[in-house]
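Study both lines:
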Amino acid sequence: MLTQLVQGCGYLMRGFGLIRQPGLRRFVIIPLSINIVIFSSLIWVLIGATETLMGWLGGSLNLGAVGDWAVVQSILWFLQLLLWLVVGVGVLVSVFYTFSLVANFLAAPFNSLLAEKVEKHLAGELVQGEESWMHALKSIPHVMMSELFKLLYMLMWLIPLLILWLVTFWIPGLNLLSTAAWLWFGAWLLSLEYVDYPAGNHGFNFPKVRKMMKQHRPSAMGFGGAVTLMTSIPLLNLIAMPCAVAGATALWHDRLRDHSNTELPRSRPMSGDPL
């Protein structure tokens, strides 16, 4: 199990190497651009919201009306620290879920195309793309439906996890449990998110992908954990999405496709196949 966990982590680094291949670079441009725009917008909104909250907190305490300046400063410092802690958790949640969800939703057709081209590259086929971008546009209804399944699955677990976090936030020890639950869920969700692209190109819908990944949970958690870590590191998170798509495709190509127990007709044909 530990070996599979480590190997799962290694597929993200393999994805980083794949997206730098000359034949694949052009298919990274649009997902990478969407990633940068969404992430930059998110950071801008979070910084503005944080400054507004801090200004409100500072203005809400009338320091001149209180005699003991040291006591007021201590209270203000504690409240600011608490606010930054809450905002910090909010930033992590936003980066891991909101950012990944929005970015992947917008880039889904191009991520599917990137997964297709990476798989062709791994199979030793010549990667060509004269009609690939038109194929990506035609696949939008299929990939958007898959993204909606992912959204519903995330919401199904997000609400109880959020309640758990709110209940245990003030309880030492238990708050660590809720944090671990968030990280575990984030790693699992991201593994499903990205493996769905290569699997979907072969006709696997999201429920089938989830069932398949349960049979390879250590590899899935290793890969998803590595993606979660990369997503939380500034600058590296800008290239996290194309790296994860390429890495998930390599994981599918090496370990998952030959061990899947379900044979399905292709609902999203690859661009080289008849529509």
User: Anything to note?
Assistant: The longest helix spans residues 69-122. Residues 69 and 207 are 60 Å apart (CA to CA).
